[in-house]
Protein 1
Amino acid sequence: MLDFTTLQLVYIGLAVFAGGILRGISGFGFSLTLIVILTLFMPPILATALIFIWEISASILHLPFVWRQVDWKALKWLSIGIILGTPFGVWLVMYIPPTPMTVLINGTVIILSIIMLRGYTLKRNLSPLEMIGTGTISGIINGASANGGPPVILLFFSSPAGVHVGRASLIAFFLFTDIFASTLFASQGLMGKEILITSLYYIPCLALGIYIGSKLYSKIN
């Protein structure tokens, strides 16, 4: 277990629970929320490692219910970009000092959130090369902050495929990207036993949040 104060442990639990609700409703938003909250009192590299494990757990819990709606063709091209971009993102979080890295991560989150809130929409489906480019950008951001969703969120939720396909595809996308990035983290010695134990401690908070969020999604739709 990582060394946190009692207040910080409770704070993390509430953040994971709230992020789980958001993830259950929309299929994304967990990393966007958690990376900003956790970097208030821990280094970005530690926050990123924890979020990777929670995101993988969230996708495993969620994917069986949306499997048939996933746009596997789009994910194929995005995954190529993820493989190209993620190693560079991991390199960034390893070698850029914590303070400027925190500013860079949170600044990126704010900019991408503003773009999403402005309701940007695609006029056409992206070509395979454009999807690879989108995946590469997402991989760089994900490797550095476990927060590579926004470029792909913009792609899926502004495409003609519809909300249900976009939500399902994001859940599958996050499972692949976070397993790949976690493997790179582990190969660099950044995914230790204490991180794993701490992350598993909060899985019940995550599962409950996703359950509540999924129920809310069903009522909304």
Protein 2
Amino acid sequence: MADEKRPNAHEAGQTGSDPAGVPASDPAIVSSAANAEQPRRITPRSARARLEPERVPQPGRPSRRARHPIVIAGNAVFTIIILLAIVVGVSMAVGKQRFEAPGPLGQDKIVNIPRGGVQDVADLLVREGVIDQKWVFIGAVIATKSRDELKFGEYMFHRHATLREVLDTLVEGKVVQHQITVPEGLTSEQVVARLLENDVLTGNLKEIPREGTLLPETYKFTRGTTREQLVQRMQQAQRRVLQEAWDRRSPDLPVKTPEQLIVLASIIEKETGRADERTRVAAVFMNRLKQRMKLQSDPTIIYGLVGGKGTLGRPITRTEVEQPSPYNTYVIEGLPPGPIANPGRASIEAAGSPSRTKELYFVADGSGGHSFAETLDQHQRNVARLRQIEQQQREAGKVMPDVAPADATLQVPAQPSAQSAGTPNSRPRAPDRASGSRTSAGSRQQ
């Protein structure tokens, strides 16, 4: 109401409320506000106190659990593992980079790795200049678990080969392959001489293999292979080829055993080296055997005289032609008792599958080949033609390209007998083969 008396400020203060009805300040709040408004008083310190450092409160002691020895050891182990992981990671990254980097080898090089441990192999590779990171190589061997897979032998390392390539070569056993070629027509004694001359092969031979049991071929082998092992390979190859030829032989052959086939093949081998003539030469001998004619082959005379030495070194004399010998097919009937050389695959196959002809004679044609004939008259004309060619070349001062030197074939008689093939085969042969007196069913000079 208008007449109602309002309280004054003093009264309001006494009641503890502001005009809005809020209580007056609480004593605690008022005291705090008053203290906040007053400036902070700094207690003066003495000069000595001021010089002393302020004391920092000591940190609280860790709990007993944190101080347990197992916890401490675990933290140490974990820290070590982390450090090792970092070291291993860095080492692997660096090692991989060096493992793939080009090596120090300036040119291709052959190194013989003997039996030994990983460190021995690494030392040898460093000495030979193949690698320059020995421990990276050893680490790679361990990392790839190749310790037991390294193979000894003779290896070719290529120029700037990486450590990876070097290790792959040793693990895969990519050893150097050497080779030796045994020409057709060599005797077993001549083959053995060649094996003994090879300084990559090792060991000695107990004995000279039987004649005709070695297959002339090119053979690959590694360093350390023994001569005995190589001879065994040659014998196995010969048996395989002989059996194949025997299984495919013509049904009407006059030879009855594989051994007789090899004997005939050895004569064919010594008579001609031309691939297009082997089956025809084989047919001449087969036809003569069927008609019970003497083979009359000069190489059989030579073998009877010198045996496994293979070469005579001079022409055959008339006395030697008539000289009895188990191998002299001018004297004996049929085949000699054994091979006179080691025939090649082509001659063996030709002996098993000769041409279907009626030819009984052949003679050199003056050009490296032969002229074949079924009758003696045809053969005599071929001989006369050969003599004419020889005369013309003598007059021109030339040497016949198909005539062998010093140990050339016997001369054909002017009138060969009806049983004589009269066929000098004078094809030149390699100097390491048997003498060049190739007179397949040949005849001697009267």
